[in-house]
Amino acid sequence: MKNNFNMQESGSVSMESVMDTVTRVLASVAVLGAIFGLLITAYSGIGSKVDKVQKSGDKAVDKVVNYIENANLTNNT
User: Fold this and answer.
1) pLDDT at residue 73 greater than cutoff 80
2) How far apart are CA 73 and CA 67, in angstroms?
3) Measured on CA atoms in the order 7, 12, 18, 19, is the torsion positive or negative?
4) Domain parsing of the chain, residue ranges
5) Average per-residue pLDDT in the chain?
6) Of 59, 57, 39, which is closest to residue 49 (Cα–Cα)?
7) For a tag on the chain, would you pick the N or C end, based on fewer CB atoms within 10 A?
């Protein structure tokens, strides 16, 4: 099994190995950030669509209630 750290002297680590590790960490953070951004975008998009459907449903219910109230007023006179 190959050691990821190139040991130059006892207890020292090469600059190349450190930079490689830093690059991998930064790349991982960038990928996780992109995934998180996509999830937030998808969640907010779904939320706005749910709000639109709910508002249109509320309007439809209001129309039905008004229709029933008008029908009751017409039948009572």
Assistant:
1) no
2) 10
3) negative
4) 37-77
5) 83
6) 57
7) N
